[in-house]
Design a protein that fits this description.
Immunoglobulin-like; 8% helix; 3 helices; FN3_dom; single chain; membrane; four-stranded antiparallel beta sheet; mainly beta; 5 domains; disordered N terminus; transmembrane helix; Fibronectin domain-containing protein; transmembrane; disordered C terminus; 619 residues
């Protein structure tokens, strides 16, 4: 039997191999099918640690029916070498070929190895391990994006890379793009981007930005300092190398801690110093992960007791003013001296004013300093004035004092003189004042009315001076409405706008309580002249935007309207009278219709029982 047979390789893809089969049989009766067998190869055959079971298990038989021109083998493993054998049992044909499938378009997740990133002080070494053979599905190219100041974009397919000229102790993000080829690195749809974060190693620290010696005694020295803006690491320790001609140099190390007194600075104290020696203090810091201290800053000083500095930000507040006795408390506050110099063991507080001076002391134990100090001085009389001074002291010296004047509240600030709106109509407005506080000798209320307009105020100068610019308005038509004395026994009513006259002693003139205009805004000032222990105090109260309601005018009835009203009343009366007459006539006629006159011989009786219509009785 003559035959001609050929097997032609056509194409392969990631998971498919296609062949062209041509079988020409001279005897048409032959219908026996041929077969094809495929077997994947293990890329890890030289490595006993890994076994690529997926590739090894990619095998099988495929029957080729007669006259099928194409054979397709599906479900193959990408990037795998195959052994494909074609067998024709009739003609004893065997042919073996060795094709391989294409790699995947994109690297798969497990295929990208984990980089070994080894940062140093100013560079980073990157090692790219080869993908494990059991998860390799094609060649891989890497592109590293620019990092640092002088490292350009790099494309490699090699396992090692070093990026230099980096900054010490700096966080970096390494951006790596991964693709099957260099061309695919430029196609966002054909690449994968991965990120690696790392921090370069710290470097030996630079010198401190500044250092100050803020406190010294015979045995201790305290420093405040600021860390360098770029420390090239994480500062962990501060070292003080105290050197003198007698004791030589002695290095002590301390943790870096913020100051209790100045939150934006760091502080450190060295103790057990020798008395009255000249020292050179050398301060430096050490970064975590380094084995040496950085640059030093030097301060020269002698261990001796010094005068403490002056307190700053001295202020006061009045508190706890009594409603029954004429005293208040004063809270005095001050900040710790910035230029402290000597050790502080106490603060002395002096109040000089009426009567004997007051001296009080705030003790400081074991150098337990605070940013701000408070002290209450109690039972200071209303209206009294004091000069308050505060100074820092130690066992040897007393510092310069900070001082200010303190004015204790007037009693008028703690009595009830607030006017209340009592009544308002179209002509006047009435306010009511409470009873006079019995702690006051007397109180006179002067009322000044101001109108909201742009007219110049024409109040007397001595009254303006007494109010010290505390009236409602700086401009506006203004006048004095009068003065009223408050009473211990009764509330005082003040009526404004009644056009009354009175003599006002403070301005030595007659004033008129001018009428107020409706629909006009006014501000009423109540100037209270209080006498307390033969001393005058002035308190001012305001009632603003007072406006009288509009006057309701009576209705004007014209003569024409009057005539029309009279005619209307007459017509209504006539109509009502006519209705009454008709109703009466109708009632009378109805009554008469019910009565009937008896004819001659007709009697009135009641019908008897069993009487019928024929005047007979039925028995």
């Amino acid at each position: 039997m003559e035959t001609k047979s050929s097997i032609t390789f056509v194409d392969w893809a990631t998971d498919t191999i296609q062949y062209s089969n041509q079988h020409i049989y001279t005897n048409a009766l032959v219908t026996v099918s041929s077969a094809v067998y495929h077997q994947g190869s293990d890329l890890c055959r030289q490595n006993t640690h890994f076994k690529n079971e997926r590739r090894l298990m990619s095998n099988g038989w495929l029957v080729i029916k007669p006259k099928e021109s194409t054979t397709i083998i599906n479900n193959l493993v990408p990037f795998t070498y195959y052994t494909v054998t074609f067998t024709d049992p009739i003609y004893g044909l065997n042919k073996t070929i060795f094709p391989n499938t294409d790699p995947t378009d994109l690297p798969v997740e497990n295929e990208i190895p984990k980089f070994i990133v080894s940062p140093k002080i100013k560079e980073v070494a990157i090692v790219i391990p080869p993908p494990q053979c059991d998860v390799t599905y094609g060649k891989i190219f890497y592109r590293f994006e620019k990092i640092g100041q002088s490292n350009p974009r790099v494309v490699i397919d090699e396992p090692n890379l070093t990026l230099k000229n980096l900054e010490p102790y700096t966080n970096y993000t390494l951006t790596v793009q991964v693709a099957r080829s260099i061309n695919k690195l430029n196609d966002s749809g054909s690449r994968i981007t991965v990120y690696y974060n790392f921090t370069t190693k710290p470097q030996v620290a630079p010198p401190l930005e500044f250092v100050e010696l803020y406190e010294i005694s015979e045995t201790i020295a305290s420093f405040r300092y600021k860390l360098p803006e770029k420390a090239n690491g994480q500062p962990a320790l501060v070292g003080i190398n105290a050197c003198s001609k007698i004791t030589r140099c002695n290095l002590e190390m301390f943790n870096i801690t913020r100051c209790n007194l100045w939150k934006d600075l760091y502080c450190v104290t060295i103790s057990n110093l020798a008395k009255r020696l000249n020292y050179t203090f050398k301060l430096s810091i050490k970064n975590n992960g380094t084995n040496a201290f950085g640059g030093e800053r030097n301060i020269i000083s002698k261990t001796e007791d010094k005068v403490p500095g002056t307190p700053v930000n001295l202020s006061y507040t009045i508190t706890d003013c009594s409603k029954h006795i004429e005293v208040c408390n004063v809270n005095i506050s001050w900040s710790h001296p910035y230029n402290q110099s000597g050790v502080i063991t106490s603060f002395e507080i002096f109040l000089v004013g009426t009567g004997a001076p007051i001296v009080e002391t705030v003790l400081i134990h074991n150098r337990e300093y605070k940013p701000t100090y408070w002290h209450a001085v109690k039972y200071l009389v209303y209206g009294s004035t004091y000069n308050v001074s505060v100074r820092a002291c130690n066992l040897v010296h007393k510092g310069l004092a900070a001082s200010l004047d303190v004015q204790i509240d007037h009693i008028g600030q703690h009595v009830d003189q607030e006017p209340k709106l009592l009544q308002m109509n179209q002509e006047v407005v009435t306010f009511q004042l409470p009873k006079l506080d019995r702690r006051l000798n007397s109180s006179t209320i002067i009322v000044v009315v101001q109108q909201y307009d742009n007219e110049k105020s024409n109040l007397p100068q001595n009254l303006i001076f007494a109010t010290n610019g505390s009236l409602c308005l700086q401009k506006g038509t203004s006048w004095v409405a009068g003065a009223w004395q408050m009473s211990y026994n009764d509330e005082t009513n003040i009526t404004i706008g009644d056009n009354a006259e009175m003599i006002l002693g403070i301005i030595n003139a007659v004033v008129i309580n001018k009428p107020l205009l409706p629909k006009t805004n006014y501000c009423v000032n109540f100037i209270a002249e209080n006498i307390f222990k033969d001393t005058k105090y002035v308190e001012i109260y305001h009632k603003d935007h007072i406006a009288l309601p509009d006057i309701i005018k009576p209705l004007e009835i014209s003569r024409t309207n009057t005539n029309i009203s009279i005619i209307t009343i007459v017509l209504v009366g006539i109509l009502i009278l006519t209705i009454v007459i008709f109703v009466g006539i109708f009632y009378i006629r109805r009554k008469q219709g019910r009565r009937r006159t008896l004819s001659d011989g007709e009697h009135i009786y009641e019908a008897m029982p069993n009487e019928d219509d024929n005047d007979t009785f039925n028995v």
